[in-house]
Amino acid sequence: MLTKRIIPCLDIKDGRTVKGTNFVDLRDAGDPVELGKLYAEQGADELVFLDITATVEKRKTLSELVKRISHQINIPFTVGGGISSVEDVSVLLQQGADKISVNTAAYKRPELLGELEKEFGSQCIVLAIDTRKEDDGEWYVYLNGGRTKTETRCIDWAIKAVSLGAGEILLTSMNHDGTKQGFALDITRQLSDKLSVPIIASGGGGAMKHFLEVFGQGHADAALAASIFHFKEIQIPDLKHYLAENGIEVRR
Amino acid sequence: MDLKILKYNAGNIQSVLYALERIGVDAIVTDDHDEIRSADKVIFPGVGEASSAMRYLEERNLDSLLKDLRQPVLGICLGMQLMCKSSEENNTECMGIFEEEVKLFRPEISRIKVPQIGWNNIFDLHTPLFDSVPEKSYCYFVHSYYASLGSHTIATTEYVLPYSAALHRDNFYGVQFHPEKSAAVGEQILRNFIEKI
Known about the structure:
heterodimer; A: 252 residues; alpha/beta; eight-stranded parallel β-barrel; 10 helices; 37% helix; globular; B: 197 residues; Rossmann fold; seven-stranded mixed beta sheet; four-stranded mixed beta sheet; 30% strand
């Protein structure tokens, strides 16, 4: 049976992990490759590397990092952060990335999804959506790392993006991100039931039961988290053991 | 060991090269007929679309080159599918090394996603390709089309229905999953192809 996936996310700036980590056993916890390798050994199913570097050297450092990752890590990984063209993607895939994620650039120019699909296939295109539930009860799309609100409903953008070529949706609830109070079950389930592509739920995972909920009630195909893994609040082997005990198919 | 990876218009070739490096095996990526023909073993990787890949191979006579090889050949993902008889992906005639046909997943329940993306287990494992690989090991799959079960099936997976996770005929092997991305299990399978086949 196809398993549910557990995906640690690493934020990168200038080739280094941004958020502090709690890994005393790593020689260099700021090295994304070392941290990623450790997660792979612990049973992570995939990794996401999100580059938040804003400098002009970004492209070069990122492509060098991707090359190092693909030399050393034996599970699939996605790279995201400021990707806006076929050329950006081509470089990263050539260096060994399995998938890339696009967000604001795809919203501003939806044809990008079709161009990427035609060139590389939808299997390597992850559409990241940052969404917030407003007072009217609807979930809206936000851009630029959550700073810019749009009037587009999350579900409408997701449906359009999949029809254009997105192969997976990485859905982050801004209402839940950082709260450790659990994932956004309603919008995750709505997207998962409506769309033919896998949904990666992100934002709010703080306890093992939250993962059980998002796979069970939320119908998520994968769940992504960052700090709870970095600070060892949840260890991946323990999480997988817990999920398996509760009837969720996981790779162990 | 003279190991060659066939270069063509499909993705993921680099990932296979890096995975081999991780297990200490050097390989050369090439589409040169003589270099492929003289290799000890050949890997035929691929992520992409069947008809355009097949057309690309035919235009360069790489399809007949592959079919005539007598040394061990390992097809991966699209590579394996192109070694089958035909593919429903844009109704493509393939190489016919394996008699199995490649079909599109058609789930009756809408909650089953196509493509299948992620880790699934493989079972009924045969041939030394799976030496030291436990039954029900998990491998990483990304695909919308599958090869049916048949006389050449040497590993089975279930998604929508049971299908061929791996095929074997004479010197030809094919795997639907990505050993280059399947953690320790994948590395064992690549090592087996290098050392045991």
